[in-house]
Amino acid sequence: MKTTLKTDITVKDICDGFVYNELEGKGLFGLSGKLTIQPEYQRNYIYKESKREAAVIGSILKGYPLGLIYFNKISDDRFEVLDGQQRITSLGRFITNKFAIKDETGNEQSFISIASDKQEKILHTKLLIYECEGTESEIKEWFRIINIAGVPLNSQELLNAVYSGSFVTLGKEAFSNSQNAYIKKWNTYISGSANRQDFLERALDWVSKGAIKSTIMYLSKN
Predict the structure, then answer these.
(1) Three-state SS letters, 141-183
(2) What's the predicted TM-score (pTM) here?
(3) What is the pLDDT of residues 77-132, one digit of tens each?
(4) Which of 22, 96, 148, 197 counts the highest number of beta carbons within 10 A?
(5) What distance in Å separates the CA atoms of residue 152 and residue 53, rounded to the nearest whole number?
(6) Spatial contact of 89 and 37, defined as CB atoms under 8 Å apart
């Protein structure tokens, strides 16, 4: 797999044309539409639930590095996020005024209301991004490896990283959508989170007769 380090891409560049789907709880596009923020193998956006999104903004304002971000290069002008989806979505959500952070006095401030010098600092912060090029199997294996650290992928998120396609897409639209009207009913019988794939995992478990090998075979077949 070939990797190229980019050091001239700013937060403003990444968030240009940022689109966030409120219903599905995920970032969709950035980088003027050239960047797919959440490809099929990526987990749903979970920083909102853990309140870590404010920490991303705070880190930039304090001058702390956000760490490496990895893109999968699809073509000369098309990319998808391999690692860094949560951080990019947090940045895009803040810049588009989807949430607020607390200032030095404890008051909540959205992007539009913070001081102009802070706005400029956020927008012009440069990110360290590796552009990766490789086969589908190489990309998915690298995705699995880099997600060993941090908030670990659960079993179904790992399976989603291996098995992608229209079946997984439709399954996630139904069982991983926190706005699905059936979620409240399902919570009566199942304890879990749509964003963390718990309902999708249980549905696959039931339809494949409750064996992990059967679940894997079912995903592979479909």
Answers:
(1) HHHHHHCCCCCCCCHHHHHHHHCCCHHHHHHHHHHCCCCCCCH
(2) 0.64
(3) 899 988 888 899 999 999 999 999 988 888 899 999 999 999 999 999 999 999 99
(4) 197
(5) 17
(6) yes
